[in-house]
């Protein structure tokens, strides 16, 4: 069985829901995005998924992947797209579990 790598990022913002909605609309042509219980799931591949959830004063992004070599790349892709959808630069301090 392959280990799953997990990386999480908390972004302080009052616009988490708006950012996630814009990101979902941006990626929906490329990925089969699902939304359930206020968690948006973006399947980048069979081995890698991103979960986005809005909270009152922050956005939580979580990456799960079995592709060890892709984790850093996915972290970069996710934060760069969040920044673009928010029209601002957030600090990215990913925490790996």
TrEMBL record:
Matches recorded under InterPro entries: UCP028291
Pfam families documented for this protein: DUF2218
Name of this protein: Uncharacterized protein
Organism, as annotated: Acinetobacter qingfengensis
